[in-house]
Amino acid sequence: MPTEAQIRKLLNDNLKKPRIDYQKVLELSAKLAKYDKNNFHFSIDAGALVNLGRDSIKDHTTALIELVKNGYDEDATRIEIDIFSEKKKEVIRVADNGNGMSQNEVIGNWLRIGYSAKKKNKTTKKKRRKTGEKGIGRLSADRLGASLKLITKSARNNVFGLDVKWNDFDAQGVDLNLIPLKRINNPSVKIPKGLKSKNTTGTELIISDLRNSWADVDLKNLWRELSVLTPPFKKIRDFEIWINTDIETEYKGKVEPQMNQAAEVSLVLNFDGKSDKIKYSLSNKYKLIPEKNKSISWTSLIQQKDNFLKDIKKIPTKKELKCGPVEFQLLFYPREASMIEGTGFKLGQLQEYLDENNGIKIYRDNISVKPYGFPNVEGSDWLDLSLRQGQDPAGIGRPGWMVKPNQLVGAVFITRDKNAQLKDSTAREGLIHEDSFYDLRALVLAGIRLLEIHRHELYKLNPKEKKIKRPTKQILEEYKDEIVKLKTELEVLQKQAKGNKIFENAKVQVEVVIQKTDETEKTIEELLDKARVLAGLATVGISSAVFGHETEIAISEVKLAAGNARMELDDDPLNIESIKEEIDKALKYSEHVLAWGNFALSRVKRDKRKKSYINVKEIVEKIVGEILPNFNAVEITVIQNLNDVYGKVFAMDIETVLLNLLTNAYSAVSRKTIKIRKIRIELLKSKRNGKEGFNIIVADSGHGVDDKIKEMIWQEFYTTKVDDKGKSIGTGLGLAIVKSIVEDLQGEKSIEKDSVLKGAKFSIWMPSN
User: Quick check: 722 pLDDT over 60?
Assistant: First the structure.
């Protein structure tokens, strides 16, 4: 029997060889341990293997992707995934045409848990950065099935095979190294064909006794994740994945990244990690703004907090970003049919693609990092895009417009070596959220803001944006007319059915259709009625916000006068005249409150929602009379030039339009900086395109409307109303409601500078029949 010294010498000699015989090293190490009486060693329970593999990987899709990553790390150009579901032949095969392994490498690397050659050699011969360094990815096979056959072939060695029964490691109290793995005698390996030449090396994993059944939904999830495993923006031309299965599914064949040709705006941004400069380029499919490379300093972005960093949780305090060099690309899709013209896509396909692939994913060394940007995964919205857009849902016509999360597809590129401060969390579910991560987040959000500003500029330049959409009410009215025609034709057919066998057979169906058309007609009437009520109620709310101050003062005066009268009733002797005076004050101000209450309630009376022949002048006079006290309270002079105009109109529409225009004018001239406070209201007969109609004009002596925003002020949520401190106080709904009503009635609207009062002049034309 060899001595301890002889065994130690043999072990050292083996470890110095260029090609280590790992099987011999393991045998000599075991023998040497018997002579070591003064030192002690860890032993590993077999169950540890189950904890590291089967129990630590959440689902079978994730496990399979881990095995695919191993093939990528071995410089494979093609990976084949076979999933067969027949009960007697349930099997998963993962094969690659990578470097393969020798028997020695299987024993010294693959079977050595926790060991990873990737820590020493971080890049492959093809200059790929290896994806894992923990040395446990191979245990993913245990998550997929109880049995594994590993068959591999390297360049200078014969085919080697190993049979692994994972359930053998369920035993408790048994050392890991006491459970044998059997060699496969005379193994043969089926290596996928290469992209350019026939490969002779590679690895094949055959997994049986599957732990999960596979169905179409599993293939869909696998396909989705594999399609974004490597980024679609930087397509790796020497790597492809194929799926073959007997499961009935469309998710098989070559896994392709989705095309980006339907994107409306694209941004590419580069940050070198050292300087203060950020380089970027923006392009759009309209070519309205020429594409060119630009640069901006991070310092200037921090200074523009309102534009760029207002939605960032943790703003970097120093000029330099700690995240290291970063490159990312963003693609914006408006989810509209016009965006897919000439692309070969259908709108449904585009929307499905966005639903499944939206989000900004992080790719480290060209491999995606979960959960960032993966839809329906906790932590996927790492940029809080939903929150920021929800807090400020401005229309695209406003400078503050923000993109919706389901309109963006993007990729952020980092590396392990150059972004060393961006570290994995312990659970391998994302990055540790420390300063370097927040710096990366801030940089990406700043890039998104650059894209949003560019898209807003496109809105102002693109004539297609300003096309008039057919009003919803007009479409409903036309639909209603068509239903009435259909109903009439069906009634004629029903009469013809008498005595005619062919018509008699269809009589029941005709009666059903007639009944349904009646119901549809009523439903349309209700929808149109509700739209008017909602517009009226919204206008009452807007008016309350504008005129509410005066009403609040009136309520306070009522309370004060009533309180004074109550106290004087306790005086002895009573001062009757003084008490009467206080009561008269209370009554006077209560009338003001009552008038406002009646005014608000009268806006949505049912008779005003019916089209009737009336004098429009009476409606205008009534509205002005009801709100005139509010104008008088802040010394606003109201000039009226009203003509008799008769027509068949909806009273509520007239009131809603006028009231919104008057509240806007009130806000414009009641500010402290306005010295001359005047509003002019005109009602004139006017004929347009052969149609009889009338003009409602409201002009004021305020500051007017800047030419740059004349189109934007009609958009939902866009407001120019500010208080004396410059803080926005408007809802941005008033003029949007006016626009909706005018378009529904096929009217016209305009805004210009008033030649007399020098402020804004709003002119609304509506038909009178």
Answer: no
Q: CA–CA separation, 401 vs 456, rounded Å? A: 7
Compute the distance between CA of residue 182 and CA of residue 16 in angstroms, rounded to an integer.
28
Rounded distance between C-alpha atoms, residue 348 and residue 214, angstroms: 27
Question: Where is 105: in which H helix or E strand?
Answer: helix 103-105
Which pLDDT does position 487 carry in this prediction? Answer: 63
Do the beta carbons of residue 751 and residue 710 sit within 8 Å?
yes
The closest alpha carbon to 266, from 286, 282, 289, belongs to 282
Q: Is the pLDDT of residue 401 over 80?
A: yes
Give the model's pLDDT for residue 589: 66
Position 111 scores a pLDDT of: 85
Mean predicted confidence (pLDDT) in 65-91: 89
Pairing relation of β-strands 253-254 and 91-96? unpaired
CB 442 within 8 A of CB 311: no
Alpha carbon distance 637, 660 (integer Å): 18
Report the range of poorest mean pLDDT among 263-267, 356-360, 578-582. 578-582
Query: Distance between CA atoms of 292 and 285, rounded to whole angstroms?
Result: 14
Q: Tell me the three state secondary structure of residue 177.
A: helix
For residue range 340-385, list pLDDT tens digits in order: 665 555 676 677 677 777 889 998 887 888 889 887 777 888 998 8
Tell me, rounded to whole angstroms, the distance of Cα 266 from its chain centroid.
16
In contact, 321 and 438? CB cutoff 8 Å: no
- The whole-angstrom separation of Cα 401 and Cα 457 is 11
Identify which of 136, 177, 166 has the alpha carbon closest to the alpha carbon of residue 42. 177
Q: What is the largest CA-CA distance in the chain?
A: 129
Residue 261's contacts (CB-CB under 8 Å, 6 or more residues apart) are: 343
Radius of gyration of the chain (CA): 38
How many other C-beta atoms are found inside a 10 Å radius of the C-beta of residue 15?
A: 11
Instruction: Please tell me what DSSP assigns to residue 339.
Output: G
Return the DSSP state at 3: -
For residues 708-720, one letter each, b for 16 or more C-beta atoms within 10 angstroms of the residue's C-beta and e for the rest, the string is ebeebbbbbbbbb
DSSP 8-state class, residue 107: I
- Cross-strand bridge partners of residue 642: 683
| CA pair distance 22, 510, nearest whole angstrom | 86
Residues 6+ apart with CB under 8 A from 672: 724
Residue corresponding to tokens 């378009």: 743
Partners of 698 in beta bridges: 681, 762
Six-digit token string for 576: 């009757």
Contact of 436 with 421, CB cutoff 8 Å? yes
Q: Over the stretch 454-484, which tens digit does the pLDDT of each residue have?
A: 888 888 776 555 544 555 555 556 655 665 6
- Mean pLDDT over the full length of the chain: 77
Outline where DSSP puts E strands in 237-384: 240-245, 253-254, 265-271, 277-284, 293-297, 326-332, 359-364, 367-369
Q: What is the 3-state secondary structure (H, E, C) of 110-175?
A: HCCCCCCHHHCCCECCCCCECCCCCCCHHHHHHHHEEEEEEEEECCCCCCEEEEEEHHHHHCCCCE
Residues 750, 738 contacting (CB under 8 angstroms): no
Residues 145/122, Cβ–Cβ less than 8 Å: no
| Token pair in block for residue 699 | 């002009």
Per residue, the 3-state secondary structure of 398-447, as one string, reads CCCCCCCHHHEEEEEEECCCCCCCCCECCCCCCECCCHHHHHHHHHHHHH
| Residues 455 and 403: beta-carbon distance below 8 Å | yes
pLDDT recorded at residue 255:
87
As a whole number of angstroms, the distance between CA 677 and CA 637 comes to 6
Q: Do residues 636 and 677 lie in contact, with contact meaning Cβ atoms separated by under 8 Å?
A: yes
Helices (H) and strands (E) in the chain, counts: 17, 22
Among candidates 139, 143, 148, which has minimal Cα distance to 113? 139
Condensed to tens digits (0 to 9), the pLDDT of residues 529-564 reads 555 555 555 555 555 555 555 555 566 667 777 777
